[in-house]
Amino acid sequence: MTGRVVRVERISPRPGGAEEPLWTTYGYQLADPKVGAVKHRAEHAVFVRTLDRVAALLDRGFSLWMSRSGKRPSLIAPKSLRIVRT
């Protein structure tokens, strides 16, 4: 896979519209698969500043928090995401 990452999409978004990767003041929020069933907890969050880095971590099995306006963020498994590159 080559090219710059321009978007990460959920393959089957929740009803009501598309979701985007959750951006916080620390960057995009992901969850490390090494911590198992507690990966959703805030203390296990991993933050990165670029979509290219998000894509690299998704390839390693990390899950990504995604959201849209008016909805709670959801933790999405990498197999349920599509990486769009230029």
Folded structure, characterized:
- There is one protein chain.
- By secondary structure, this protein is mainly beta.
- The chain has one domain (5-85).
- Helix content is 10%, strand content 37%.
- It contains 1 helix and 8 strands; from the N terminus they run E-E-E-E-E-H-E-E-E.
- The strands form 2 sheets. Strands 2, 3, 4, 5, 6 and 7 form a 6-stranded antiparallel sheet that branches. The chain has a two-stranded antiparallel sheet with strand order 1-8.
Integer tally of domains: 1
Termini separation comes to 10 Å
Mean pLDDT: 94
Order of helices and strands: EEEEEHEEE
Number of helical stretches of at least 4 residues: 1
Q: What portion of the residues fall into strands of 2 or more residues?
A: 35-45%
Strand segment tally: 8
Radius of gyration: 12 Å
Q: Largest sheet, if any?
A: 6 strands, antiparallel
Label the structural class: mainly beta
The helix content is: 10-25%
Shape: globular
Runs with pLDDT <50, length 5+? none
Key features of this structure:
single chain; 86 residues; mainly beta; 6-stranded antiparallel sheet; two-stranded antiparallel sheet; 1 helix; 37% strand; globular
Topology:
Blueprint: E1 5-10, E2 20-21, E3 23-24, E4 27-31, E5 45-48, H1 51-59, E6 63-67, E7 74-76, E8 81-85
Antiparallel strand pairs: 1-8, 2-6, 3-4, 4-5, 4-6, 6-7
Condensed summary:
With 86 residues, this protein is mainly beta.
